[in-house]
Amino acid sequence: MKSRSLIESFNYAVSGIIYTLKTERNMKVHLVIAIIVILSSLFFDFSKVELLILFFAIALVLITEMINTAIEKTVDLITDDFHPLARLAKDIAAGAVLIAAINSLIVGYLLFFDRLNPYTNRVLFKIKNSPIYLTFVALALVILLTIGIKSRFYKGKGTPFQGGIVSGHAAVSFCIATIIAFLADNMLVSTLSYFMAFLVGESRIEGKIHSLFEVISGALLGILVGILVFQIIG
């Protein structure tokens, strides 16, 4: 009987995790990032303490996201009307998730910075010294693919400055971040630049102006344009 009770408790817990993954977009994003980080850690010589810190940071984000979801559902169960305290409860729970996410970014940066820095410098060196026509070819391919996708899937949504198959804000912000990364030639400055560009792209998604795919498309286009501009200046 006790064993069955434990199994039932386990099943209920797994059901809660699955429900959160199915209904919460942020939980899906956190899970994908967690998987990428864990897989990446296999290629670096982390100590036991570093792995423990990494797993704790990942778990903290997932746990706070689930608590946030539980609080939101509880508030919705109690009242359907707008109430300042209900909004405050949801905002506080969301703030806990934000703190956990920022903590995970800091932990990831501190753990991966020294190990990724040599590889980053090597990649930047190769790009700087690669034949410029390769950049033109890559940029032309991205533009042609973007035009092709837009002509294939465009349904009259958005304007040149709002909406559309490619996010112009994401393209510009990632282009600027790429140029800063080349000019600064510093891992910390480059990371901060791309983090700001990421926030711009994320704001377009949160504002329901662009989808994730449209922001990623704009980011890729902006990065290639930044490489092209830097090579011309250089």
Summary?
With 234 residues, the chain is an all-alpha fold. It has helices at 2-23, 25-41, 48-78, 84-128, 132-153, 168-184, 187-206, 212-233.
Walk me through the structure.
The chain has 234 residues and is mainly alpha-helical. It folds into 2 domains: 116 residues, Helix Hairpins; 105 residues. The chain contains 8 helices and no strands. Helix 2 runs antiparallel to helix 3. The longest helix is centred in the middle third of the chain and has 45 residues. The radius of gyration is 22 Å and the shape is globular. The N and C termini lie far apart (73 Å). The mean pLDDT is 79.
Secondary structure layout:
Layout: H1 2-23, H2 25-41, H3 48-78, H4 84-128, H5 132-153, H6 168-184, H7 187-206, H8 212-233
Binned, the helix content reads over 70%
Uncertain segments are none
- The helix/strand order is HHHHHHHH
Shape: globular
Radius of gyration: 22 Å
What does the main sheet amount to? Answer: none
CATH class of the largest domain: Mainly Alpha
Q: What is the SS-derived class?
A: mainly alpha
DSSP strand tally: 0
Number of helices, where a helix is a run of at least 4 consecutive DSSP H or I residues: 8
> How many domains would you count in the coordinates?
2
Average pLDDT number: 79
Strand content: under 5%
Distance between the ends: 73 Å
CATH topology of the largest domain: Helix Hairpins
CATH architectural group of the largest domain: Orthogonal Bundle
Primary descriptors:
mainly alpha; 234 residues; Helix Hairpins
